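S1.2 Input.
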Amino acid sequence: MTDATVERPWMRFWRGESRIARFAGYPGSRGRVRLRTLSNLRWLAIAGQSAALFVVRFGLDYRLPIVKCAIAIALSILLNVALVVRYPATHRLTNREATFYLGYDVLQLAALLYLTGGIQNPFALMFLAPVVIAAATLNLGNTLILAGIALASVSVISVAHYPLPWSNNEQLILPELYQGGIWVSLVLGIGFTSIYAWRIASEGARMQAGLAATQLALARENRLAALGALATAAAHELGTPLGTIAIVARELERALPPTSAEAEDVRLLRAEAERCRGILTRLARPEESVLSGTDRLPLGAVLDEIANEYRGGDVEIRIEMEAVVPPEPKVWRVPEVQHGLGNFIANAADFAQSLVRVRAQWNASELRLWVEDDGPGFAPEILERIGEPYVTSRPGTYALGETELGPSDAFVGQQGMGLGFFIAKTLIEQTGGSVRALNLEAGGARVAIRWPRGTIDGEKPPARESTV
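S1.3 Output.
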């Protein structure tokens, strides 16, 4: 049993267009950075650089190549103006474009520091800013490119630079060992912050995509439930007029000669009316309609109802009830419970050799379920990350790599993306439950689920918690 996605009708929402990728804002052909954002940050940098030059030159009367520094700042101003003229404010940059513009910012900063003392200048710390922005918004490859440019710039200006601006009668000479320490701190700072920021952004983006998938799945189930309720209401509303049509047709059939052409038409009309009534009657049966989540059943009946969908193969699905405190609880048939448990059972059936056991136990304080199988168990490399989106060990299927923020292409044909376990776990947690996965000592896997009493078996349907 693994956390791989199980192909079920309710989870086919990711076939076709990549709606999750668009919802979560993943970088595909377009990145996640707006041109206005980078332009505003560059304007802020221009203002800060200009103020620093003005204070140092005219406030402190330190000599520096003011003309060359002004040219470097003017180039940034021209770039911002050109981008404003060329693109609309809402233009989203591709990863390549964002890397180019951030790379320019690094080189422009390096040029200013080269003219004002190199890494001896306290503002050398500003090298971190473009790299952190890249790590938080771009993919790993472009982040490494920016970090490489920043590291190369730091190394160059550490050995070749203009003197640090200082008083005319004094000269600041820093020991070479101290300058080496500054270089090491900048290199380590750029490397650490870029990796750390990228990892945090990556985890956040992947989680956002998984939660978006859960929202889509739950929204689809709610629409199906509403459709089922509508069908039931329509069946009751249409039953009366169809009954009237059938009665009138029967009276006409009796009044007409049996051999007349009109009698044959009346018999056909009555037969079709009876057929419509039969269809509406089947729609109106609660046990055959879409689950609406407005009724309760004993826990064993709900588990048996869920397991029936996955029976019929070579694997036996066994329901075991272990009452500690009778009577048997009645639980609400809400979509979260139905499809969360259904996914765990289907997952176990896919990897079991011959048996899946669904054990239920309850007492006065909590209700517990265990879904166990006799398969190979969870892969050791994913056991600690089980329940995260895009984590799967199903062989021959697709899942995101460590360097991918999220799906950039359509999901057509990509089965086993590791979203199934995540969606099921999130749905269960929305009803107040908790999920834990582990391997059995004797072999096989176990998913343990726990609810406090009164959450899914209370007098009112469980309140949806804001996990999504």
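S1.4 Remarks. Confidence is low (pLDDT under 50) at residues 2-30, 286-294, 395-417.
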